[in-house]
Write a structure and sequence with these properties.
The complex is a heterodimer. Mean pLDDT of chain A is 84; it is low at 1-5. Chain A is mainly β. Chain A is elongated, with a radius of gyration of 21 Å. Chain A has helices at residues 2-6, 9-12; strands at residues 20-21, 25-29, 33-39, 43-53, 56-63, 72-76, 82-88, 99-103, 106-112. In chain A, strands 1-7-5-4 form a four-stranded mixed beta sheet, with no helix packed on it. A four-stranded antiparallel beta sheet of chain A has the order 2-3-9-8, with no helix packed on it. Chain B is α+β, with helices and mostly antiparallel strands. In chain B, 15% of the residues lie in helices and 29% in strands. A four-stranded antiparallel beta sheet of chain B has the order 1-2-7-6, with no helix packed on it. Chain B has a three-stranded antiparallel beta sheet with strand order 3-4-5, with no helix packed on it. In chain B, strand 1 and strand 2 form a beta hairpin. In chain B, helix 1 (17-32) crosses helix 2 (34-40). Classes of the chains: A mainly beta, B alpha+beta. Chain A binds chain B through residues 19, 21, 28-29, 39-45, 65, 67-68, 70-81, 103-106, and chain B through 9-11, 41-50, 54-61, 64-65, 67, 69-74, 103-104, 132, 134-136. Strand 6 of chain A pairs antiparallel with strand 1 (55-59) of chain B.
């Protein structure tokens, strides 16, 4: 009991973290970049957050749409969880130049390859 | 005595009889274990859809509303049709001619998905509206004014 009463009010009230699911995604590769496509239907552009923290690329998308009060659900299949995708990045990518585009529920990330791994032709001198 | 049209769910897929069988089994379980079925059927956490894309159906006083998750289509690639009381939503993504987009296997990319829903009977088919935003298609199906009994005059000769 004494422990409880000593708790900092800031930490005492904790809201449960919203549950997340991994969105459907795909990774493809060209000579100089990787392309990551993630399906985030129902997520507003502004509710998508893409972050790179060290070796991890994280995409999160929050479903802001809520059922209007006057509507009664008859049948539901659409998952109600938010989206979260975490992918590891290794030495092959250029972290500084990741590009993102969003259109109709599809997020496309372009992750350029690092110069060091691009094919190089070495001239023979002399 | 009242005759009610046999319809186990507002949604059904006539093309897939196996899913029909699954629905039958679900219905049997719904009766036997109502608590489980309500957990399972409310969209749940991961969602458990029976077609190619998940849909929700809602109703209010004025209308039924169908929401379908169809990410990555252009507006012109989606079609909404109503025929014989069945709403069909189709998405057909074609490769742009001239651009020749090819995936890693060298195949041209084409995506076609479709789903049919039996409409509740009292829907005004002419006033159906559809909107597409953030990869979600919303179809609004206004309910019909209550069908009033019609007086038919009998001609006496």
């Amino acid at each position: 009991m004494s422990l409880l009463s000593k708790k900092d009010p800031q930490t005492a009230v904790q809201t449960a973290p919203r549950r997340t699911v991994i969105p459907r995604y795909d990774v493809s590769e060209t000579a100089d970049a990787f392309t990551i496509t993630a399906w985030l239907p129902g997520v507003e552009r502004s509710a998508i957050e893409t972050t790179v923290d060290g070796e991890v690329l994280t995409v999160s998308g929050r479903r802001a749409w809520a059922v209007p009060e006057s509507w009664t659900p008859v049948y539901r299949e659409i998952p109600q969880a938010d989206f979260r995708l975490a992918l590891g990045l290794d030495h092959r990518v250029n972290r500084e130049a990741i590009g993102a585009a969003y259109s109709q529920g599809v997020l496309t990330l372009t992750v350029p390859k690092a110069e060091a791994v691009k094919p190089r032709r070495i001239e023979i001198k002399g | 005595m009242k005759l009610i049209r046999y319809q186990n769910s507002p949604l059904y897929q006539p093309a897939d009889s196996f899913i029909g069988l699954r629905d039958e089994m679900d219905r049997l379980f719904d009766v036997a274990f109502p608590t489980f079925s309500s957990l399972q059927r409310d969209g749940g956490f991961f969602g458990d859809w029976q077609g190619e894309f998940p849909i929700d159906l809602y109703q209010d006083k004025e209308a039924y509303v169908v929401r379908a998750e169809l990410p990555g289509f252009r507006k012109e690639d989606l079609s909404v049709e109503v025929a014989d009381g069945i709403l069909t939503v189709t998405g057909h993504q074609k490769t742009e001619t001239g651009k020749k987009e090819k995936d890693a296997n060298g195949a041209t990319q084409e995506r076609r998905v479709s789903r049919s829903i039996t409409l509740p009977e009292h829907v005004s088919a002419e006033k159906i509206q559809a909107a597409y935003e953030n990869g979600v298609l919303t179809v609004t199906l206004p309910k019909l004014e209550e069908v009033k009994p019609k007086q038919i005059a009998i001609e006496v000769k």
